[in-house]
Fold this sequence. Notes:
Low-confidence stretches: 1-29
Strand order of the largest sheet: 1-5-4-3-2
Distance between the termini: 53 Å
Largest sheet: 5 strands, antiparallel
Order of helices and strands: EHHHEEHHHHHEEHH
Strand content: 5-15%
Number of strands: 5
Shape: elongated
Radius of gyration: 38 Å
Structural class: alpha+beta
Helix content: 55-70%
Amino acid sequence: MAPAPSCASHATNCDNKSMDPxxxxxxxxxxxxSRILLLLTVALPLQACVVGPDYAPPAPAALGVPGNYSxxxxxxxxxxxxxxxxxxxxxxxxxxxxxxxxxxxxIAQAVARLRQAHESLVQSxxxxxxxxxxxxxxxxxxxxxxxxxxxxxxxxxVAYQADLFGGVKRGIEASRATYQGSGFDLAxxxxxxxxxxARNYILARQAQSNLAIARGxxxxxxxxxxxxxxxxxxxxxxxxxxEQSRAQRAQTAATIPSLxxxxxxxxxRLGVLTGQAPGALKAELxxxxxxxxxxxxxxxxIPADTLRQRPDVRAAERQLAAATAQIGVTEAQLYPALNIxxxxxxxASSIGSLASIVTGGLFAGLTQLIFDAGRTRSRVRAQxxxxxxxxxxxxxxxLTSLEDVENALTALQAAKKRQVQFAIALDASNxxxxxxxxxxxxxxxxxxxxxxxxxxxxxxxxxxxxxxxDQAQAIVQLxxxxxxxxxxxxxxxxxxxxxx
Length: 500
C-alpha cells in the first residue's frame, strides 16, 4: 500500500492528474479503500455498545393479573373468536359486520396510520447506512481568442454517521415497537367497529320488536275504546270509561314515535359504519326479524388468555417498549459521535476524458457534547419519566380489560335472569288481560281493572323483548371484552400502498 500523503486537519484531499483509468488498482483507489477500511475497523467494534435499558415485558404478576375471574364463568378453553358474530346465526348480521370491516372509514384511517408507522420504521433503518448523492454538470464557455470550450463534470458525495453507542439501533427498536403498536391499534379499531355494528343491528331489531308490541297493544286498546263507547250509549257505564280508554290509548300511541326514532337512528348508524350514506341499509332492514340470539354460554378462560387476545393490551405493551427504547436514543446523545464524509469527482472538456482527472476527499470528525447546561441529561430523565408513564398506562389497560370481562359476564347473567322472570310475568299478564277483557265485555269488571291488566301485559311484553336484546348486547360486550374479532396469532402488517 502506498503511503498516504500528509493532509491538513482531519480531511484528506488527493488529486492524481496522471491517473490511468484503465488500471485496475490506481493509487487513489488503494488510498481511498485503505482509509475507509481503517475507519470501519475502528468504528464497527465501537458500534457494539448500546446505551439505555434493555426492554423486557413485565410479568402478569407484576401487572396485578389474578389467576381467575371473580365472576362465575363457563370453564374451558375459549373458542375461536376471530369471527364471533357468526355465532348469532343471522346472515344479515354477518353480512353487515363483514361490510363494516371492509368499508368503515375509521378502519381506513387506522390502516393509513399503520402504513405511516411502517414508513417511519423504514426511515429509521436507513440511518444505519450511509447516504450517497451524485451530481453531473455541463457548461459551454465562449472566448474571443480560442472560441468555445466545453466543460463536463461528474461527482458523488457520501455521508455516514457511525452508530457508536446504539442511538440509531434504539431508534429502530422504538420505531419497530411503534409500528407493531399501530398494527394492534388497527385491530382495536376493527374489533370496536365490529361490536358497534352488531350492537346497532340488535338495537334495530329491538326497536322493530317493541314497535310491533306497541302497535298490537294499540289495536287492543282501540277495541276497548269502542266497547266502552257502546256501553256508554247503552247506559251501562258513565263516560268515565271512554275517557280512561282514550287516555290509555294515547299513552301507548305516544311511545311509537320514539320507537320509530330509535329504529331510524340504528339504521342510519349501520349505514355510516359500513362506509355508506345513512339510509343505505334501510331497504335491507325493513323486513321485521327477531332479535338475534347468541350462544347460551361463552368460555372465557383465564385472565392471562385475555391479555394475549386483547389488541389494546398488546398495543399498550408496545408503547411501553417504544418509550423504553427512546431512553437509549436520548442517552446516546451524551456520548461521542463519529461522522464520516467523502466525495469524489472529475471534470474534463470532453466526456471521453472524464476519467483522466479524478479528485476525492475523505473526512472523519469526532464530536462530543461538553456543556449544554444539563439540557440533554434532562431529556434523558424526561424520557425515563415517559417510560414510567407508559408502564402505568399498560397496567391500567390490563386492569380495565379484566374489568370489561367481569362486567360483561355480570351483564349476561343479569339479562338471562331478567328474561326468565319476564317470561313468567308475560304469561301471567296475558292470562289476566284475556280474563279482564272477557269480564269487561260481560259487565263483570270495570275499565280501571282492564286498563291496569292491559298495562301490565304491555310492560311484560316490552320487558321480555328488552331482556332478549340485553342478553344479545351482553354477548357482544363479552366478545369485545375478550378481544374477539381479529387473528391474535399474528401481528397486523401494513398493506401494500394503493396505486395512484
